[in-house]
Amino acid sequence: MKYRQLGSSDLKVSEISLGSWLTFGLGVDDTTARACLDRAFDEGINFIDTANIYGKGAAETFLGSALAGRNRSSFTLATKLYFPMTETDRGLSASQIHKQIDASLRRLRTEYVDLYQCHRYDQDTPLEETMEALTEVVRQGKTRYIGFSEWTAPQIQAAIAIDGVEQFVSSQPQYSMLWRLPEAEVIPVCAANGIGQIVWSPLAQGVLTGKYLPGKRPAADSRAAIPAMNGFFGDDLRSNRTLETVQALKPMADGLGITMAQMSLAWVLRQADVASAIIGASRPQQVSDNAVASGIELDDSVLGEIDRILAPLLDNFEGTQ
């Protein structure tokens, strides 16, 4: 496993990180989830990402129990807030930031998280209020650094322009071979301001692994077939056109002696500003297979062929973002 600096922070995070969205505390039983977590550490993964909304606290609660016996300084722990936890608890107001960080720390059984992230931008709260509250949380020692997920370039720039507050060190956008929108504005503005990328869904909900075949039902134990885990499979990802096009990548991966998943993860990691790619896992072997992607370098001819194969799909996906 190789490691990269996360933005302007002093955090060195594994190129592959383990996420808990739709899995821990929700779609995967605790025994299997613990096995996946243990395998992640065995493979050198040191970065675990979660959020309060995952299972309405269930993912954090699971991680609090599963991580309790480990040296806290041996891993990087990130969580998020924004989405509704109750009918009245949502957003990035000062009161919510202070309330939700305390609740997350209780569930995670830790005195601090390494990274506290705004899960989305809050249009209903003044940005200055959000940034000042996040600054207080850092200075209270409840988080070491702050980040955001799915903010636009103007929103990022507005936060950077506020004087006297803690600066963001991380961005968490959706990014994959099929979902490239961050390349246009978000990655450049972040790169200019010491903000690293931690990307989610680098395998496009598993579609880029090649396991979903056109014209065939997904396997019963796959994410696409499980109601608790398949809510983000839009029509574009499900379409035979997408699945047929993705299958055309398989001979290339085979020729490189790697899996399609490993090739897809290596593709996002080709970006120097991507510190880590978040994977989900429902089996320990998936963790091991994905961890192999760390350190794989794709040459220009491979990258060009990937672009050629996927070109017919890209405008379609960018139009849905």
Short description:
It contains twelve helices and ten strands. It has 321 residues and is α/β, with parallel strands linked by helices. It has one domain: TIM Barrel (Alpha-Beta Barrel).
Strand percentage, roughly?
5-15%
**Within the largest sheet, what's the order of strands?**
3-4-5-6-7-8-9-10
Strand tally is 10
Rg, Cα atoms, Å: 19 Å
Unreliable runs? 222-231
CATH homologous superfamily heading: NADP-dependent oxidoreductase domain
Structural classification: alpha/beta
Tell me the count of domains. 1
| Multimer state | single chain
**SS element count, helices:** 12
> How far do the termini sit from each other?
32 Å
Percent helix among the residues?
Answer: 25-40%
| Sequence of secondary-structure elements | EEEHEHEHEHEHEHEHHHHEHH
Name the overall outline.
globular
What profile does the largest beta sheet have? 8 strands, parallel, barrel
Question: Class in CATH?
Answer: Alpha Beta
